[in-house]
């Protein structure tokens, strides 16, 4: 499954990149395939491992902020593998333009 998640520490100030960096380090250590985007992180893996990772990330941010907003979008397709790159490649193969990804 794929999951896109965004964790926002409320009241942590204008720049949250130091906290985001800690989350990315946690995600990277999970050994799950992921992509960091400007607005969130996309992770690919099995249900339990992905949700466990997001829970750990939420708790990590919660240690730095009294209030945290976490948004999760899940795409769960039976039998699908390597969708993190595969979904993008599928769209690129149908276009006749260079796509930024």
Q: Can you list the strand order of the major beta sheet?
A: 2-3-1-4
Number of domains: 1
Principal-axis shape:
globular
Subunit organisation of the chains:
single chain
Strand content: 25-35%
Provide keyphrases for this structure.
101 residues; alpha+beta; Alpha-Beta Plaits; 3 helices
Describe the structure.
The structure is a single chain. The chain is built from three helices and four strands; from the N terminus they run βαββαβα. The chain is an alpha+beta fold and 101 residues long. The chain has a single domain (2-94), classed as Alpha-Beta Plaits (2-Layer Sandwich), CATH 3.30.70. Helix 1 runs antiparallel to helix 2 (47-62). The radius of gyration is 15 Å and the shape is globular.
Give me the secondary-structure topology.
Layout: E1 2-10, H1 17-29, E2 33-37, E3 40-44, H2 47-62, E4 67-75, H3 83-94
Antiparallel strand pairs: 1-3, 1-4, 2-3
Give a short overview:
This protein has 101 residues and is of the alpha+beta class. It has 3 helices and 4 strands; from the N terminus they run βαββαβα.
